[in-house]
């Protein structure tokens, strides 16, 4: 049972949103349950944060950043939590939120209750679909650090990590929708994430996202069109890994 | 004293004046046959007058020309400078020629010069020409910085001071020449006087350059201060207006949401229609956009300046440039690379948006790490892998070297990281800066 949380300080709205969420669960026949309906952060924090779906209001009792701070906390404890903001605040900084929380959705109250109801239902549906598609593959994350910040990438999205000769000590990441870089060494990642395949000195790839392998040129191609060469030594191991799948 | 035939004296005077005029023309880059003809005529007339007036005729000549040029500061300064330089070279050339003559004859007698005066004058003129050519060649190398110096002089209206300075140098120079002539000072003493004076002259010019630079810096600082003050006043007033509007908007939305149930229960279709009309209020949502006033939270002039500049560029292109600065204060201690990268990222975003004209810049800062995100909606599908390749572009009439340059700039540092992500139809380019206190 996937838990659903709701935080909203306005009693009338809280009641409505709770109703919409329950309706949404029923309509989508989702394996979810509304386990927590809170009117302030203290009440909310009494429930232990766990993997689940969170509907949060941004401004709680005059504290404009209450929802955001809570979300940061949840994200830290449960990196894979699905967080959705419901807020009146138009100036809610979408780009900042995206960087800090990466919420699943934002619902603006300005558009009226009908719209909110529709969005809640849609979000429950999309989360439900996500859960089903992830359940068969690894749910773990790839973590890395830049300065004082930690970042996570969903293993399903990861395509490859690679280094460049001319920029030693820097690792580049390619995922389905993101390019990133950080300082580190591929060897540690090869050890920490045995599901990844080291196809030559400077490439560590996720074979789940590989599309084709040309055994003549030893060229491995991935879903985003990027490719890399598999070293002669690793050729056998690669074929073995493919056969296992 | 050496007494020299008047024809030779005329030639020497002519050459001196002609050299001054040509050097002046060189300074202001005004060469044409007419100018040269006028120069010859002027030099002839004044050279003849010079026969009766001794060295003071030069002052007379310069004074008259200055009267003619009184409205043109650049010409006046060039003229005075040119005459200073030519005079110094003339004197130096004369002494060089003397020494050569004495050494050649191995006799240190002034009478020699009188005997061989045709050769002596010719030789000194030739040597003078040589000096001038060397000077022009050297000056050519400093052409650029001289031009820059002149621009600064003009910009800060220092022309009058510079003219006074150079002109007094000229006058004192001529006084030395004149008095040493009248008092019949020996050539050796005159030579050392002029040498010392030349050194002083060089020092004076050096001081002049220094002075102009100092003035320029001082003026720049003053202008910047005034500009910053104006900008801050403007930003504060915008901030106030914005805060009031936002408060109003917040109240308004809550009220609207609160009366929704009442409207729903009501039988009046008119009321319902009216409510529908005002709820999806686009103008209200505009209140939040383009809040450039927040930029005052950034303590770095370069970055703040860049954001303001891009804001106005965006405005001129009818693009909403939103700033998301949620913290009260942002501290930047960054070098110019960050500003360059940021400039390229914003330019790229501004050039990319056509339909949904909106670009957002968000800054998140923790103690050690700063993230600057540029966010623009994507119009069509984009392969992230390709955008950093040199020459790749989604735009027409665009070379597409911006992002590959960003890559290059980042590779040169060890504390910058770039993160590009496509989320919900938006491209988010984030520059992460580590350290720098």
UniProtKB/TrEMBL annotation, chain A:
Superkingdom in the source lineage: Bacteria
Segments forming domain HTH LytTR-type: 142-244
Chain segments annotated as transmembrane: none
Cited PROSITE patterns: HTH_LYTTR, RESPONSE_REGULATORY
Gene3D superfamilies recorded: 3.40.50.2300, LytTr DNA-binding domain
Keywords noted in UniProt: Activator, Cytoplasm, DNA-binding, Phosphoprotein, Two-component regulatory system
Coiled coil regions in record: none
Domain Response regulatory: 3-124
InterPro entries: CheY-like_superfamily (IPR011006), LytR-like (IPR046947), LytTR_DNA-bd_dom (IPR007492), Sig_transdc_resp-reg_receiver (IPR001789)
Modified residues (4-aspartylphosphate): 57
GO molecular function annotations of the record: DNA binding; phosphorelay response regulator activity
Keyword RNA-binding: no
Keyword Cytoplasm appears in the UniProt entry: yes
Protein task: Required for high-level post-exponential phase expression of a series of secreted proteins.
PANTHER family in the record: STAGE 0 SPORULATION PROTEIN A HOMOLOG (PTHR37299:SF3), TRANSCRIPTIONAL REGULATOR-RELATED (PTHR37299)
Protein name, as recorded: DNA-binding response regulator
Source species of the chain: Companilactobacillus suantsaicola
Automatic annotation (TrEMBL), chain B:
UniProt KW keywords: Membrane, Transmembrane, Transmembrane helix
Stretches assigned to the Sensor histidine kinase NatK-like C-terminal domain: 338-415
InterPro entries in the record: HATPase_C_sf (IPR036890), NatK-like_C (IPR032834)
Electron transport as UniProt keyword: no
Gene Ontology MF term list: identical protein binding
TM regions (residue ranges): 6-24, 36-69, 81-104, 116-138, 158-179, 191-212
Domain of life: Bacteria
Pfam families, alphabetized: HATPase_c_5
This protein's name: GHKL domain-containing protein
């Amino acid at each position: 049972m996937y838990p659903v949380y709701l935080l909203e300080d306005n009693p009338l709205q809280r009641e409505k949103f709770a109703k919409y969420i329950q309706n949404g669960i029923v309509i989508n026949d989702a394996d979810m349950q509304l386990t927590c309906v809170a009117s302030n952060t203290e009440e909310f924090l009494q429930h232990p944060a766990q993997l689940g779906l969170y509907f949060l209001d941004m401004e709680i009792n005059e504290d404009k950043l209450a929802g955001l701070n809570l979300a940061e906390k949840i994200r830290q404890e449960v990196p894979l939590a699905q967080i959705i903001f419901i807020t009146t605040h138009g100036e809610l900084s979408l780009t900042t939120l995206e960087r800090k929380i990466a919420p699943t959705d934002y619902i603006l109250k300005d558009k009226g209750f009908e719209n909110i109801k529709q969005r809640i239902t849609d979000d429950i549906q999309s989360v439900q679909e996500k859960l089903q598609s992830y359940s068969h593959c690894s749910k773990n994350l790839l973590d890395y650090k830049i300065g004082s910040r930690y970042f996570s990438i969903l293993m399903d999205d990861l395509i490859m990590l690679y280094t460049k000769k001319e920029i030693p000590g820097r690792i580049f990441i390619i995922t389905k929708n993101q390019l990133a870089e950080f300082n580190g060494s591929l060897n540690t990642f090869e050890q920490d994430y045995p599901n990844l395949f080291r196809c030559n000195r400077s490439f560590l790839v996720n074979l789940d996202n590989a599309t084709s392998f040309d055994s003549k040129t030893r060229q491995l191609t991935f879903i985003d069109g990027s490719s890399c060469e598999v070293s002669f030594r690793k050729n056998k191991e690669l074929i073995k890994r493919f056969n296992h799948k | 004293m050496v007494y020299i035939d008047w024809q030779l004296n005329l030639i020497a005077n002519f050459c001196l004046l002609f050299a001054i005029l040509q050097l002046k023309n060189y300074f202001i880059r005004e060469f044409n046959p007419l100018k040269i003809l006028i120069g010859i005529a002027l030099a002839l007339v004044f050279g003849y007058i010079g026969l009766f007036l001794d060295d003071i005729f030069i002052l007379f000549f310069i004074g008259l020309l200055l009267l003619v040029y009184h409205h043109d500061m650049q010409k006046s300064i060039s003229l005075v400078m040119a005459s200073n330089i030519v005079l110094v070279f003339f004197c130096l050339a004369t002494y060089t020629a003397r020494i050569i003559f004495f050494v050649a004859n191995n006799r240190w007698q002034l009478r020699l010069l009188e005997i061989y005066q045709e050769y002596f004058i010719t030789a000194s003129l030739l040597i003078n020409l040589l000096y001038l050519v060397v000077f022009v060649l050297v000056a050519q190398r400093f052409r650029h910085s001289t031009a820059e110096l002149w621009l600064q002089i003009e910009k800060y209206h220092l022309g009058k001071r510079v003219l006074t300075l150079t002109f007094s140098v000229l006058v004192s120079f001529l006084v030395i020449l004149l008095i040493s002539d009248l008092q019949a000072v020996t050539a050796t003493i005159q030579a050392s006087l002029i040498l010392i004076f030349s050194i002083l002259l060089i020092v004076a010019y050096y001081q002049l350059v220094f002075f102009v630079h100092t003035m320029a810096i001082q003026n720049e600082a003053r202008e910047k201060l005034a500009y910053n003050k104006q900008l801050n006043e403007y930003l504060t007033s915008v901030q106030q207006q914005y805060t009031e509007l936002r408060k109003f908007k917040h109240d308004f939305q809550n009220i609207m949401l609160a009366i929704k149930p009442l409207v729903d229960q009501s039988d009046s279709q008119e009321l319902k229609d009216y409510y529908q009309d005002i709820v999806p209020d686009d103008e209200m949502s505009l209140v939040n956009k383009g809040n450039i006033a927040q930029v005052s939270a950034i303590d770095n002039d370069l970055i703040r300046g860049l954001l303001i500049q891009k804001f106005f560029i965006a405005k001129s292109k009818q693009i909403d440039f939103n700033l998301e600065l949620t913290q009260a204060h942002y501290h930047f201690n960054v070098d110019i690379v960050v500003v360059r990268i940021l400039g390229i990222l914003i330019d790229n975003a501004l050039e990319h948006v056509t339909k949904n004209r909106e670009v957002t810049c968000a800054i998140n800062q923790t103690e050690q790490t700063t993230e600057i995100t540029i966010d623009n909606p994507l119009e069509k599908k984009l392969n992230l892998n390709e955008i950093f390749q040199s020459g790749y572009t989604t735009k027409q009439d665009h070379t597409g070297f911006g992002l590959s340059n960003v890559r290059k700039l980042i590779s040169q540092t060890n504390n910058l990281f770039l993160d590009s992500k496509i989320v919900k139809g938006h491209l988010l380019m984030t520059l992460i800066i580590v350290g720098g206190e």
